[in-house]
Please model this.
Amino acid sequence: MRTQRQVVDYSLQKRAVLRELLAGRVGTYDVCDASPYLKNAARFHGEPTDRRCPICRSENLTLVHYIYGDELKQSAGQARTLTELPVLAMTLREFQVFVVEVCLGCDWNHLVEQYLLGRDGLTGDNDGISEQDATGAGGAGRRRREAQR
Ligand SMILES: [Zn+2]
Model:
């Protein structure tokens, strides 16, 4: 996505968990603990993948995108479909996305990555939105940053 930034990749942590599991230091009950909420989010807002679950190897993983940020108000912490994210990214200045992979077969779940989306990530010269059209949000952000000094 065009405004995606500050990406944090959690694949190392995931591999560490899988290693612990293979070594028998943690059990599948410890890592296959998807909550009913997470599983519902996966069913209704999830993004199917063609990657097999690393635990049961019988189901494909589903990616769930959770959004967080002050601008989201009551929507903060909710799951969104992948197609809804670019729309939000053009509406809001900045929000955080957490991507969780879930297996609906065995309840395996793990944080995959997190990143920021939102208009603040636009460089300004790559589409029809001019500085003026940005409703002064950039100015407000500058003022806020100055106030924090
Ligand atoms: Zn599984």
In short: The longest strand covers residues 60-68. DSSP finds five helices and six strands in the chain. The CA atoms of residues 55 and 76 lie 30 Å apart.
